[in-house]
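User: Show me a protein chain along with its predicted structure.
Assistant: Here is one chain, sequence first, then structure tokens.
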Amino acid sequence: MPSSKPSTKPVNPKFSSGPTTKRPGWSVANLSVDSLGRSHRAKQPKALLKKVIDDSKRLLGIPEDYLLAIVPASDTGAFEMAMWTMLGERGVDVLTWESFGSGWATDIKSQLKLEDLRLMEAPYGELPDLTQVDTDRDVVFTWNGTTSGVRVPDGDWIADDRKGLTFCDGTSAVFAMDMPWSKLDVVTWSWQKVLGGEAAHGMLALSPRAVERLESYTPTWPLPKIFRLVKKGKLGLDLFDGATINTPSMLAVEDQLDALAWAESIGGLSGLIKRSEANLSVISSWVGNADWVDFLAKDAASNSSTSICLSIVDGWFSSKSEDDQRALIKGMVANLESEGVALDIGGYRDAPPGLRIWGGGTVESSDIEALLPWLDWAFDTMKADNS
């Protein structure tokens, strides 16, 4: 028999891993529209773009000598820009343990066609052996696997005296996890992940060593216009003062400034990390008492606090084919959505069949606490209806 239907619902049922939910108390009425309908190169709109850069840099504790820019095409555009402009100077180690890291590996191998390439792979739920990474080579990796719920636990495996550059896709980690900036030469993220901003804008952070690479190395392949950072051997510094390569949405800029101001009001980065870790803690306690579900991550030390991925371990479910498992989960997710308690919690399409709950700082722990009994009910209902 299914467990009884819970009586309490989350106030906010949005648990998507991207775009993620808006901050608590968000309203479009809070956004200024004075910059709309103006050139983004005019003094006032450009100042707002620069404020996004400055506030982000301050909140994240990015070193003063690092550069930060707003670039086109979300995190994907930012990371592709970094790879296409800086890789190829030396051999590359690429770490993959989920779909986005695998995508970067495919681009490096099939599009850039680098020959001196080492792929260090691990299945969903695990990390590659970080002790085998050679940081005298360039290293490409995601800090947090958005589709696997597995993050690197720290940056201790990255040498301080490395000769290569570290390229970190940090899109579901930045603003939720403690990033060791001195270990990272290139870091990218998007607005729509941890702070719940609007899509299409990416952020690109560069260490002095990354700037040196850009100014001393020219790739052998042609670069699209939106990837060109260097002119006559020098990095265009106006990009890092808010002069974007293409036209940004000023409404999205206002929205991001609202999110950054909220983050500041709750204690900045430490406040955001605390909220995210609290969300993971709530789910960890529930998983510890549930007999049908477990984390996809095999090691608690690498368990993500943002993209929290769950596997169904009940024997009845495990005996099904993968296609049947995906169909059952699709029905379970649809049931929860129809009840108005959970939106967008199905696992990523390339990941093993399961659930994914966003636990970043814009999510209230009270909403996750209200959600969990509904997951028990939905699983029991699914099992009863299909046994």
